[in-house]
Amino acid sequence: MYICYIDESGGFEAPNSGPRTPLMVFAGLIVRASAINDVTVDFLSLKRRFYPGQAARHLDYVLAEVKGSELRRAVRSGSQRERRHALGVLDGVVRLIERHEIRLLGRVWVKEPTKALKPDATYTFAVQDIARHFDEFLGQQNSLGLVMCDGRDHRQDVRVAHSVFTQKHKSEGDALPRIIETPVFGKSDNHVGLQLADLVASALLFPIAARVYCADAGSGLHTAPEFDAIRSRYARRLRARRHTYRDATGRMRGGIVVSDPSGRRSSWHLLQAADSELQGSGQQDT
Length: 286
Hints:
Blueprint (H helix, E strand, L loop, with lengths): L1 E9 L12 E10 L3 H15 L17 H8 L4 H20 L3 E8 L8 H23 L3 E6 L3 H15 L15 E3 L5 H22 L14 H14 L2 E3 L5 E3 L1 E4 L15 H7 L5
């Protein structure tokens, strides 16, 4: 059995208003159920190493959340010590993902300059899309699975769960037969999988996507050039952890899907090496 943990980063507002987030990112982490204990032990040890004294007891480190937005802030900090500390945490996160063979799915919406995203439609579509690719993964593994999302408010959670419920119980048959229930919602304080999903969405995919798709819109808190260090350090390694597959028509599916209506740059660009590395090597990943 597998669990797919889902969290998001960004906002739904137009990028020229409010906090001006230029994109919205959803990350789904597929974790083998039998590995959850080992993943938890390793992640608590990582937090204890980089944040000593944050909890009285080892297991209480699950309550001492490390937010991806805080790591983003540290990476763009003028303090070399803060940058080194943040990258050390992210090094440990990526190594953990690799060690436990965690697979990645996701959606990225690059916003048009004056257009907001529709919160309910965007969130439900993202969860449905990740669930569809997760179900295909389960078929490859001849296994079953469950989707767990980071809880928001009750009304929003009900709408998301119902959108998947309708896929599972429609009259034509179950569209997601290997996912055993409609999505459940947890508090990230209690679930290491949700904390990891936050770090992948907010501290890895968000800054990489912001530099790849939004850097030409001008520098700012969300598109800081310091984020190039995250891209060059982790993009290829995250690319290797995606779950991708070909559908019946031969089209590639899954992975981290990007919608970029203004720039029309494809998902292919997201987790490529930085441009300077590509030029230096004389080739591009495929």
